[in-house]
Amino acid sequence: MAADSLRRAARESVSGLPRAFWWLWTSTLVNRLGAFVATFMTLYLTLDRGYSASFAGLVVALHGLGGVVSSLVAGVMTDRLGRRPTLLAAQASTAFSVALLGFMEHPAAIAAVALLVGMTSNASRPAVAAMMADIVRPEDRVRAFALNYWAINLGFAISATAAGLIAEYSYLAGFLGEAALTLACAVLVYVKLPESRPERGTAAGSGASPDKGGTGAETEPEIGLGTVLRDGRFMGVVGLSFLISLIFTQGSVGLPVAMGTAGFSPGDYGLVIAVNGLLIVALQIPVTRLIEHRDPQKLLVVSALLAGYGFALTAFAGPVWAYALTVCVWTLAEIVNSPTQMGLVVRLSPVHGRGRYQGVYTMSWSVAALVAPLMAGFMIDRWGANWLWAATGVLGTGAAVGYWLLMRNLPTEATDSAPAASGGPATTTPRTQEPLPAAPN
To answer: Are 223 and 350 in contact (CB under 8 A)?
Structure first.
């Protein structure tokens, strides 16, 4: 009976999603199977090259700076050129730049190419998120984002363990492996994924009346970056996303440096951080089934607190298993936060501005990738790792309060879409914004 229930739950979790979504999901999985640079950059610089934590933080911060720039540019490209061309350009250039980074010797060259890697690797994010919103029905989006996040972490769980062992013998092999798999993603996108950008139509309900010579509709207004930046509620979500990502980024920045200074090997860190991916693989789908129809305000508040205090517990960790236990706490926060927040971003984004809105949202993670390593390197070198973990508790509390205040009277999604079964572009129908009642508990 239990086995039948599990099979039924699994079928319900994956059913009803278009074929194009699954090709996009597969490209995500392949890409994350090669994840190496973002996870092991700090260990590569501090242990293999002998640089200080501050220099490692500077290089990783430049990687984040590249993401800040490319997030906005890629968001505009996603809306203007299309999702597919943006993905192809981003993944092909990422493969080249990651391979190049593995051969850099001079500190300045390492820093410059790390900036380039940050620009190229982050350029695909707005296109992936916009394409997913295009091809998946609104009622399935939280589930779709959860499944995509599950793929990210399935690949990460495998790659973190393998890359930790590879790093003990050859960091260059890790760089080249990531480049090869990223190039495979570009080929997959080219062969299997159709363009999904919705055609620009008209906005109903705002045009001239037909009896006065009008058509009853007018052309939809252009959406620029200024439109996004003036959207107060959305920018509030972006700000809170920055705080949350500043916390989560410490899993790949502060945690490896802290473990390295405590005498642990890259393999030890690889095993500990792999717990994060393995738990998401095991729990993301069942937890999403429990939360997808619940109040997003409560979910985001709870996830912010779990993230902040989960990392704060690292201050009390000693043996490897204790570090793994703290990872379990903040991993639960990730499982809840990621699909809930991504669903919220799509709800607040107009259909023909999804690329730009996703670009600005992605920028919050990129800015955090810029700030987090600087913060971690400075605090660890100056005061020790325990101050860093205390700071994450403060950030988590602040984010929880922010979500509680921002999401009162949350409006419904401004536009709806009904993707074709084949995963083609959606047809858009305007919806009236009304207060959203709290979801049942």
So the answer is: yes
Lowest mean pLDDT among 61-65, 399-403, 411-415: 411-415
CB 67 within 8 Å of CB 233: no
The confidence band for 338, taking pLDDT boundaries of 50, 70 and 90, is confident
Half-sphere exposure of 122 (CA within 13 A, CB side): 33
Closest CA to 45 of 246, 263, 257: 257
If you compute the radius of gyration of the chain from its CA atoms, what whole number of angstroms results? 22
3-state secondary structure string, the chain? CHHHHHHHHHHHHHCCCCHHHHHHHHHHHHHHHCCCHHHHHHHHHHHHCCCCHHHHHHHHHHHHHHHHHHHHHHHHHHHHCCHHHHHHHHHHHHHHHHHHHCCCCCHHHHHHHHHHHHHHHHCCHHHHHHHHHHHCCHHHHHHHHHHHHHHHHHHHHHHHHHHHHHHCCCHHHHHHHHHHHHHHHHHHHHHHCCCCCCCCCEEECCCCCHHHCCCCEEECCCCCHHHHHCCHHHHHHHHHHHHHHHHHHHHCCHHHHHHHHCCCCHHHHHHHHHHHHHHHHHHHHHHHHHHCCCCHHHHHHHHHHHHHHHHHHHHHCCCHHHHHHHHHHHHHHHHHHHHHHHHHHHHCCCHHHHHHHHHHHHHHHHHHHHHHHHHHHHHHHHCCHHHHHHHHHHHHHHHHHHHHHHCCCCECCCEEECCCCCCCCCCEEECCCCECCCCCC
Question: Is a pLDDT exceeding 60 seen at residue 427?
Answer: no
Percent of the chain with pLDDT over 90: 8
Per-residue pLDDT for 422 more than 50? no
Q: Give residue-wise pLDDT tens across range 61-80.
A: 788 788 778 877 888 888 88
Predicted confidence (pLDDT) per residue in 262-277, tens digit: 777 777 887 888 788 7
Please, what is the Cα angle at 64 between 245 and 52, to 5 degrees? 100
- Locate 315 and state its tokens: 């201050």
Separation CA 74–CA 90 (nearest Å): 9
Q: What is the pTM of this model?
A: 0.68
Query: Quick check: 246 and 371 in contact, CB under 8 A?
Result: yes
What confidence category does residue 396 fall into, taking pLDDT thresholds of 50, 70 and 90? very high
pLDDT band at residue 306 using 50, 70 and 90 as cut-offs? very high
Please answer whether residues 431 and 415 qualify as being in contact, where contact means their C-beta atoms are separated by less than 8 angstroms: yes
User: Which position has the token pair 């600087």?
Assistant: 374
The neighbour count for residue 108, using CB atoms within 10 Å, is 8
